[in-house]
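tl;dr need the bound structure. longer version: we got a ligand (adenosine-5'-diphosphate) that a collaborator sent over and nobodys looked at where it sits. i said id run it. heres the input, straight from their email, havent touched it
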Amino acid sequence: MSRPKPNILVTGTPGVGKTTFCEALAAASSLEHLEVSKMVREKRLYREWDDELDCSIFDEEMVQDALEPLLESGGCVVDFHSSSFLDESLVDLVVVLRVDTSTLYDRLEKRHYPESKVKQNVEAEIFQSCLDEAREVFEEADIQIWEMPHDTEEHMEEALERVLGFVRSFG
Ligand code: ADP
Ligand code: MN
Ligand code: MN
């Protein structure tokens, strides 16, 4: 499929720095940042509520319907922790941000997440759940998956430079 500008999926466990990275990427390029968790909240793209974690459970079909028309024309940075429901033909590059357990623990504590939610996310990072989820869909479709560390400012600069290179050479 040909798009004038690429769609880039930026995924990873909550707290790895997806939104921080995507904001910087959008500011340094002509790509549009789609913060999916915010769309889920604002457009109420959920039908269920997780009582234990006190958060919504996004509805895959509702999120697909909201995202697909935006991705058709290209030039989007999709910022979300989940990716297996996305249509691989709409994605040109997958970036999986990774951090050390201690980094993630500190960031989520600062966010005042309840202990159970901190623990669940730290475990998800240890088990590389987001990476595996992305591989499930995009590996077979031969879409590049870049796993990149994101503990420090320097890591972010490196990742930005690499992704901007991809954007420049796209098409
Ligand atoms: P996510 O969108 O993946 O949940 P955020 O972008 O909200 O993560 O970042 C979580 C916290 O980590 C924020 O306080 C942010 O300032 C910090 N952070 C993000 N990326 C980095 C980085 N590369 N180096 C240091 N701190 C970072
Ligand atoms: Mn975020
Ligand atoms: Mn767009």
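gonna send this back to them w/ a short note. The helical segments are 18-28, 36-42, 60-72, 101-110, 115-126, 129-138, 153-168.
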